[in-house]
Amino acid sequence: MDTNIILIGVGGVVLGLILGYFISKSLAKGNASKMIEDAKKEANVIIKEAKSEGESLRKEKELKAKEKFIELKAEHEKVIFARDKKMSDAEKRIKDKESQISNELSKLKKSNTAVEEKIKDYDYRVHFLEKKKEELDKAHKSQIKQLEVISGLAAEDAKEQLISSLKEEAKTDAMAYVQETVEEAKLTAQQEAKKIIINTIQRIGTEEAIDNCVSVFNIESDDVKGRIIGREGRNIRAIEAATGVEIIVDDTPEAIILSCFDSVRREIARLSLHKLVTDGRIHPARIEEVVKKTKKQIEQEIIEVGKRTVIDLGIHGLHPELIKMVGRMKYRSSYGQNLLQHSREVAKLCGVMAAELGLNPKLAKRAGLLHDIGKVPDSEADVETPHAILGMNWAEKHGEKPEVCNAIGAHHDEIEMTTLLSPIIQVCDAISGARPGARRQVLDSYIQRLKDLESVAFGFTGVKKAYAIQAGRELRVIVESEKVSDDKAASLSFEISQKIQTDMTYPGQVKVTVIRETRAVNIAK
Q: Using an 8 Å Cβ cutoff, are 336 and 443 in contact?
């Protein structure tokens, strides 16, 4: 720092001398001395200022150096203090560990001493027992020898005689016990079975309702009949063609009769007529539109019926497709007995009987409700499969448990029963169908004949729709105009009638009517 100050001072002096030299040269000789004096004065002032400035800079640097030293010293003291604290904490932890280890060592020494004492005691007892065992073996052998001498038999011979006598005695006692048990079971099993079945039937109360093939559509006045028939009967023909239901308009006051063996078609026709009469617009185009909407409405209603049935019976987690099949059972009948009502009744009977036998009542209800879903097939190809097997396949497809699937498939002995649930379903199905008035054999055979009539028509190419009407005395066949010509329609009618005549047995005559329509539709924009 001092060297810098000196250099600054010397530089100032040199600068002043140079300035004085040049000034003296430039001024006149008369002013030279004055200028030299002024330059010296100015040089002295510059030197003083440089010295004072250098002194102040030196003091300032010294002050900063002292502050930096104090700051570094404080930080160093902090580091040393923290290190000392860590060392003291580590020493404390080490002392605690040493005291803990010493305590554990003392405990281990005590426990080792106790274990050694126990081992010694155990060895002593083992040695004592071995001695006792040897003494007992010697005594046993001596007794056996004495007995052999007294009895004149060897030990093995005596043992065999004793075992054989005990076997005979045990066999006799077991036979007697088994005979008593079997006789008691025969006496009580039949009584218990009757008791369970009677109690189950008494706890289930159901209505006796027989399905028929005719619905009555009530109208406000007979004027509506003319509008339903239409000009030259075109409206009534359009309704019959769209729904497959025979509409009988006779002299019955304020009523129109709807006749069809399929209750779904009959319900679609009834609702469609109600909408058409309420709306007032009755013509073929409107009829087709209303019938299509009604079919969608019936499908939605089928789903709602299935959901309500499942909720009423307390069955959870049923697949949506199975719920839909349950709803479709409302519009099906088995020997004149409504299929949904029959399935609900079987489900309740199964639940009660399973509870009486200590089985799972919820699983039994599930199997009872689904046991006849095979009677509502989706297509004509499914009709050939037995309904029990078809229902079992559907249940397996939609994730039902093996017990439920076996009960569905085995309730008519189509497959072997593998669970206790299967005979319960079979018994409850028989109970529900055997009630007086529950079923009607004639109706079922009649409906089957009508279905067979329609199936014969569907066996020919070009057939779009086929409806058996007039109680099976007439078969109306609607064909596709693109595939069947007018001449072909006449020959098709003859072929169908010959097929019915050769393949089916029926009373009276069957009239076969083939209908071919050509429609040209364009849209004006």
A: yes
329, 343 contact by CB (below 8 A): yes
Write down the mean pLDDT value for the chain.
79
Residue with tokens 């006849």: 372
Contact 375, 339 (CB under 8 A): yes
Phi, psi torsion values for 522, nearest 5 degrees: -135, 155
Mean pLDDT of 180-191: 64
Identify the DSSP state of 465: E
Q: How many Cβ atoms are within 10 Å of 522's Cβ, its own excluded?
A: 4
Which of 54-68, 219-233, 285-299 has the weakest average pLDDT?
219-233
Q: Tell me, what's the pLDDT at 435? A: 56
CA distance 154 to 256: 106
Tell me the torsion sign for CA atoms 46, 48, 52, 55: positive
The per-residue b/e assignment along 122-147, b for 16 or more CB within 10 angstroms, e otherwise, is eeeeeeeeeeeeeeeeeeeeeeeeee
The answer to whether the beta carbons of residues 477 and 463 sit under 8 Å apart is yes
> Among 172-186, 287-301, 337-351, 482-496, which is the least confidently predicted range?
172-186
pLDDT at 209 over 50: no
Residue whose entry in the numeric block shows the structure tokens 């009649």: 446
Radius of gyration of the chain (CA): 57
For residues 342 and 334, give the distance between their C-alpha atoms in angstroms, rounded to a whole number.
9
How far apart CA 285 and CA 238 sit, in angstroms, is: 9
CB 313 within 8 A of CB 344: yes
43, amino acid identity: A
Tens digits of residue pLDDT in 70-125:
888 888 888 888 888 888 888 888 988 888 888 888 888 888 888 888 888 888 88
Predicted TM-score (pTM) of the model is 0.47
Distance of CA 6 to the CA centre of its chain: 100
Give the DSSP H or E segment for 334: strand 333-334
Name 217's bridge partners. 256
